[in-house]
Amino acid sequence: MSDSIVRDPTLAPFGRLKIDWVRDRMPVLNAVRDELKAGGALRGRRVGLALHVEAKTAHLCLCLREAGAEVAIAGCNPLSTQDDVAAALAEAGVRMFGWRGATGEEYFDFIEKVAETRPELIIDDGGDLVTLLHTKRRDLLPGVLGGTEETTTGVHRLRAMERDGALEFPMVAVNNARCKFLFDNRYGTGQSTWDGIMRTTNLVVAGKAVVVLGYGWCGKGVAMRARGLGARVIVCEVDPVAANEALMDGHDVMPSVEAAEVGDIFVTVTGCAGVLRREHFERMKSGACLANAGHFDVEISKPDLAALSVSRRVVRPNVEEFVLADGRKLYLLGEGRLVNLAAGDGHPAEIMDLSFALQALALRYVAEHGRELGPRVVELPAAADEKVARLRLRALGVEIDSLSPEQARYLESWQV
Ligand code: ADE
């Protein structure tokens, strides 16, 4: 496509191969695509996306195009765009803006380019496209019918906008659907975070002390898979209920400054800023690896790490060594950005199949009902969850029971 901006268009064949690999492993999204094609709700609609540009996302874009939409996309993280996939998307006629390693300025310029395609419908991951439309490019707001948000952090930001009366169009919180957070946040983040850490460090996890900061659905997945790999898991939390959950799941729980002294690998997954900071770095063992699995690169304080260090250098792709004044060495993975995408390929295809099938259904919901929904954060109707779950069971050839009429009546009644 003429106005796409990608690093290297000649990488397209490699990107195409990656997309081919995931396409056959995303049967739920493929079934939803066929329904959208037949129904026509997205035909002729302009859709703008800010998502992690890797193969599964590319397949989503191509499905939306097959359903008749005009699609424009930028990355939602400076390190998660895969240049070969971006080239393949541009070659396929999707308007693609971005490259891996974008500077802060380039990153927002690319998102603005998507906004300038005047999308009627948007898909956001983390809230940067929505924020841009509500700040710098308010002139483009009237053309937006509504959109969908992928992630916990994005929904958090949307709720803050809604609370302040700032949100100007409906946004469906896809993250809150059961077929999203139960699988993507837990099993997706659980697997892909360790995939990213292991492939980028080539170090063993078994026998290590892994500190997981944050015990939401993502943190639960990261902790569960760390234990499966043979680590001793320590959870740090500020929510007393979540801390009790972690204890009953069999993990140790302690304050983060205490965990700092014993951890070998730290994974932040809180959605909050300044989670690992000076007071933690001052106590950590030499050799500790620091990874982030939350949306933004604010959880591990890079300014504190830099201020404490006498030297720093990149020692492997995606691994930076910080030498502190007393000689201890700390290793920051993926620049403190989402380690599963900065140093890996993101969640497995079968997981993104569910998340992106929900996204496609949510987009149709906004296309059909956007005007009635009003400017607020909207939950995806439960029917979409049920549909995605049933499609997946069908694709796997798994059958389940259904209630008899008597059982259904029993569950509806209150008399003995
Ligand atoms: N691939 C595409 N979007 C993703 C996300 N939000 N998390 C992990 N992998 C992804």
Plain-language structure description:
The strands form two sheets. This protein has an eight-stranded mixed β-sheet, sandwiched between helices. The chain has a seven-stranded parallel β-sheet with strand order 3-2-1-4-5-6-15, with helices on both faces. Strand 1, helix 3 and strand 2 form a beta-alpha-beta unit. It has two domains: 222 residues, Rossmann fold, CATH 3.40.50; 156 residues, Rossmann fold. It starts with 11 loop residues before the first helix and ends with a helix. The chain is built from 17 helices and 15 strands. The mean pLDDT is 97. The protein is globular. It is of the alpha/beta class and 416 residues long. Helices cover 46% and strands 16% of the residues. The site of adenine has 14 residues, from helix 3 and helix 14.
List the SSEs and their pairings.
Elements: H1 12-23, H2 27-39, E1 46-50, H3 55-66, E2 70-74, H4 83-91, E3 95-97, H5 104-115, E4 121-124, H6 128-134, E5 146-149, H7 152-163, E6 171-173, H8 178-201, E7 209-213, H9 217-228, E8 232-236, H10 240-248, E9 252-253, H11 256-262, E10 265-268, H12 278-281, E11 289-292, H13 302-308, E12 309-316, E13 319-324, E14 329-333, H14 339-342, H15 349-373, E15 377-378, H16 382-396, H17 405-412
Parallel strand pairs: 1-2, 1-4, 2-3, 4-5, 5-6, 6-15, 7-8, 7-10, 8-9, 10-11, 11-14
Antiparallel strand pairs: 12-13, 13-14
Helix pairs in contact: 1-3, 1-4, 2-3, 2-15, 3-4, 3-15, 5-6, 8-9, 8-15, 15-16
The site of adenine (ADE) has 14 residues, from helix 3 and helix 14.
